[in-house]
Amino acid sequence: MDALSKIAGFILWLLMVVLYYAAIFLGVVLGCYVGLGLVDLIAGTSYRENFLLRWHTWQDKRATKRAKRQAQTEAQGARDANWEEA
After folding, report:
1. Residues 23-60 pLDDT 10s
2. Where along the chain do its domains lie?
3. pTM above the 0.85 mark?
4. Quick check: 86 pLDDT over 70?
5. How far apart are CA 50 and CA 39, in angstroms?
6. C-alpha separations of 84 from 8, 29, 76, 79 in Å
7. Which residues contact 46 (CB under 8 A, 6 or more apart)?
8. Are 32 and 39 in contact, with CB atoms under 8 Å apart?
9. What is the distance of C-alpha 13 from the center of its chain?
């Protein structure tokens, strides 16, 4: 019976340790979420909207660079074709 109580005690201790660290992790995550919400509330902005705006701006810049590169490649190909014809 003594071994059984030691095993049960260890399992309970392990459960308490896991729950303790889970509570800390959850507190940090919720704290960050609430903190960002308070910042948004005070500043009158939305962190989510600002992030999405920056994301789409970055995507637009990438698309513009890609289009410029494509146009330069096509122009270079046309110049090369004209050079070969001459």
Report:
1. 999 999 999 888 877 877 787 777 777 778 888 888 88
2. 1-45, 46-86
3. no
4. no
5. 13
6. 86, 64, 12, 9
7. 40
8. no
9. 35
